[in-house]
Amino acid sequence: MAELKQMNHSPIILGIDTSCDDTGIGITQGNKVLANIVASQTALHAKYGGIMPEEASREHLNVIDSVLEQALEQAQLSLDDIDVVAATYGPGLIGALLVGLNYAKALAWARDIPFVAIHHIEGHIASSLTVLDDAKDITLEPPFMSLIASGGHTSLFQVKAWGEYEQLGRSLDDAAGEAFDKVARLLDLGYPGGPVISKAAEHGDEKAYAFTRPLRHQKTFNFSLSGLKTAVATLVEKQPDAKPEDVAASFQYTVVDHLIYVCKKAAKETGLKTIVVAGGVAANKRLREAFADTDLEVIFPPLTLATDNGAMIALAANKRLEVGLFEADDLLKNATPYLPLAPAEFKEGVRKKR
Ligand code: KG4
Ligand code: ZN
Fold first, then answer.
1. Residue 143 CA, distance from chain mean position
2. If I label 191, which of 40, 99, 110, 164 is the partner at 20 to 30 A Cα–Cα?
């Protein structure tokens, strides 16, 4: 298996993510994004109001060649310029993961260049690294916290070192993005829920409905969003005339308040002031504004890197190479649908004492 060649520049890395419903291919060098192409399957799945796994895998297969071509064109590079290939190996939908992972492995094998297998969540955390190039006064050295809020995950991690994570908290039920998607369906606003709710909320009154704030008295750093979703369902049923914009705004307000409350609480207990907020929900404008009002040092990825993409996978691979975490046997890693980033730290919802 190929080792990384000695070179006098940062390696040019091609990153692929097909963990869910987006075919993402990015090209990076250091923390700089040279290309980032995402073929979204939103239109395909919109008619179901959610993702159809088999259709997702087939669509990845249909478009992956063309996404690669577009990425190379955007970076103005050819395959000969690529030094390393990286891909997500989990967690995600098995059929979807297999497409991008095997495509990437075959590319690396055929061209005799190193292959790096990346955990999807590590990719989300690494998506923030790219802002370091733009704002030189920001540093991102572990330890720091990372809130990952996406369609499949809502977890709070402590990044102790690159590659070493501790889970501080997680959602006990729905993920934040999932809650946005479900509430959008309840309000008949369309799919995916995050962007449509946030758009509707711009014209709504976020104080119109006071939903109960989840897990206000917990001793842990967990999240819970399904009670809020049920509260919205009950409201919509009992008050069919409620303005969807007001419900959307009040719902969004409560989600944002909940996420920030837990992060602030964890910052207080761990003493960690810096937090990377990533995953699809990190694209939410209201969440960005509310985090900016805290005394935490918050780092968000650029909007284009908040939702799933391939560039974040390349950024994570670059970091792994930089800190010496590259494993030459990554080619043997298989697609793994269930893949926790850190060993579970919870027993019956209580944080273990260390
Ligand atoms: O990270 P991501 O692209 O895919 C997963 O790994 O799940 O996240 C997708 C999720 C969806 O649930 C979508 O509704 C949510 O992120 N999302 C948002 C926004 N944009 C996307 N949620 C809130 N506000 C947004 N602007
Ligand atoms: Zn994701």
1. 19
2. 99
Q: What pLDDT was estimated at residue 4?
A: 79
Residue with structure tokens 């019956």?
Answer: 348
Q: Looking at the structure, do residues 295 and 187 belong to the same domain, yes or no?
A: yes
Residues 187 and 156 in one domain: yes
CA of 218 to the centre of ligand 2 (A): 27
Nearest CA to ligand 1 atom 14: 194
Peptide bond into 301 cis (omega under 30): no
- The minimum-distance atom of ligand 1 relative to the CA of 152 is 7
Q: Are residues 327 and 262 in the same domain?
A: no
In ligand 1, which atom is closest to the CA atom of 192? 14
Beta strands at 274-278 and 297-299: parallel, antiparallel or unpaired: parallel
Could you tell me if 20 and 100 lie in one domain? yes
Domains identified in the chain, total number: 2
* Residue 227 and residue 196 share a domain: yes
Give yes or no for a contact between 28 and 315, defined as CB atoms under 8 angstroms apart: yes
Name the residue with the closest Cα to ligand 1, atom 3.
307
Residues 171 and 247 placed together within one structural domain of the fold: yes
Low-confidence ranges of the chain (pLDDT < 50): 346-354
Judging by DSSP bridges, how do beta strands 274-278 and 164-170 pair with one another? Answer: unpaired
Task: List the domain range (segments joined by +) for residue 107.
Answer: 12-129+306-351
Distance between Cα 89 and ligand 2 center (Å): 12
Quote the ligand 1 centre to 194 CA distance (angstroms): 6
| Phi-psi group of 253: left, alpha or beta (phi > 0 → left; psi -120 to 50 → alpha; rest → beta) | alpha
Residue 1 belongs to some domain of the structure: no
> Please, what sign has the CA dihedral across residues 102, 90, 2, 128?
positive
Same domain, 260 and 312: no
| Cα–ligand 1 centroid distance for 281 (angstroms) | 5
Q: Which of 197, 281, 305 to mutate to test the pocket of ligand 1 (most atoms within 8 A of CB)?
A: 281
Q: Say which ligand is closest to the CA of 181.
A: 1
Residue 186 covered by a domain: yes
Are 204 and 251 in contact, with CB atoms under 8 Å apart? no
